[in-house]
Amino acid sequence: MSKPVLSMRNICVDYVTDRGLVRAIDSVSLDVIEGEILGIAGESGSGKTTLAKALLRILPPPAVITGGEAYFEGRDLFSLSEPELRALRWKRISMVFQSAMNALNPVITVGEQIIDTLLAHDAGTPGAARTRARDLLEMVGIHGECIDAYTHQLSGGMRQRVGIALALALEPALVILDEPTTALDVIVEKEILEQIGDLQRRLGFAVLFITHDLARMLQFADRVAVFYAARLAEVAPAEELRRAPRHPYTQMLLSTVPSIRGGKDRQESIPGAPPSLLDPPAGCRFHPRCDRAIDLCRERTPELRELTPGHSAACHLAE
Ligand code: SF4
C-alpha cells in the first residue's frame, strides 16, 4: 500500500481579530498519499486555501497556526526553520496560485523566472537552466520561443501554464493547486486539468487540488475531502463520494451539480448560508441548514469517523 507523502494531524489556524480568535481551520487531520490527487472541496471561506497556505507557512497575518502537526516526508513543516523551509518550498512542495498574473513577476520574462527558480536551488548551470526552462514550457504546451515573453504578452491560460511549469521545475513530490483554473473559460480549464493529470501520471507527484467546483473535482481527483465551516465533513474516494455520499452537506452539494443527462429544471441551491466563524453554531455547524438535524446535532459536535474503509464522515446520523 502506498504511504502518505504528507500527514496532517489536528491542524488549527486562528485569525486574531478585535473580537478575539476566529478559528479558520479546526482540528483537521488528513493524509495525502504518494502519487494521488486529493481534492479539497467546500464553499468560499470554508478554510481550503487557509489550509494550503498553512502547510507552506505563507499565511499572511493576522492568521496564525495554533495547533497540530504536518509531517511531510517525515519532517514536521511547522517546526522547520525558515532556511529549512525555503530549501523545501518549490523543490519538494510547490503551489500554483489562483491568479498566475498576480503570482508571476511582470517585469522579467517567464524564462528568467523559471531559470531563477532553478538556479536558486542549484539546479545546474545558467545554460542548462535555460534549456530546462524551454523544456518545461513545452511540457505544459507553450512554445519554447515564449521563453523571452513577458506575462502581459501571454493569455490567461498561457500564464496559468507558466505557473504550472514553475511549480514542476524542481520535480516536487507534492504540488498544491489552489483553484488553478478559476479565471479561465471551461475549454481552457479542461485542457489544463487534463494536462496536469497527464503530467501527474507521468512524473508521479502527488496533488492537493483545491476548488469550490465539486463537479470538476469528481472528474479529476482520486479522493475528495469536503470542508464545511473550517472542519472536515467527509473524506472518500471520488467515485464513492459521487455514488454514495454520507454527509447531508455533501449530498446537498452534489444535488446542486447539473447533470448532462438531467432535465432543464432549475438547479437547487443549498438553503441558508455558511455560519460566521466569529460565532459558529454549537454542535454540528451544519445543523441550521440540515433538514435531518435532531437535538443531538445542536448539542454535540460530530467526530469524523470511518464508516467503511477509506470513507469517513462527521455526522451523527451517517451510519
Ligand atoms: Fe445534519 Fe446532524 Fe448530520 Fe450535522 S450531524 S449533518 S445536523 S444530521
Report on this model:
The chain is α/β, with parallel strands linked by helices and 319 residues long. Helices cover 32% and strands 25% of the residues. The chain is built from eleven helices and twelve strands. The chain has helices spanning 48-56, 82-88, 100-103, 110-120, 126-139, 156-168, 186-203, 214-220, 238-243, 248-255, 295-299; strands at 4-17, 20-33, 37-41, 63-72, 75-76, 93-96, 174-178, 206-211, 223-228, 231-237, 305-308, 311-313. An eight-stranded mixed β-sheet has the order 6-7-8-3-9-10-12-11, with helices on both faces. The chain has a four-stranded antiparallel β-sheet with strand order 2-1-4-5, with helices on one face. A hairpin with a 2-residue loop joins strand 11 (305-308) and strand 12 (311-313). Helix 4 crosses helix 5 and helix 6 packs parallel to helix 7. It binds iron/sulfur cluster.
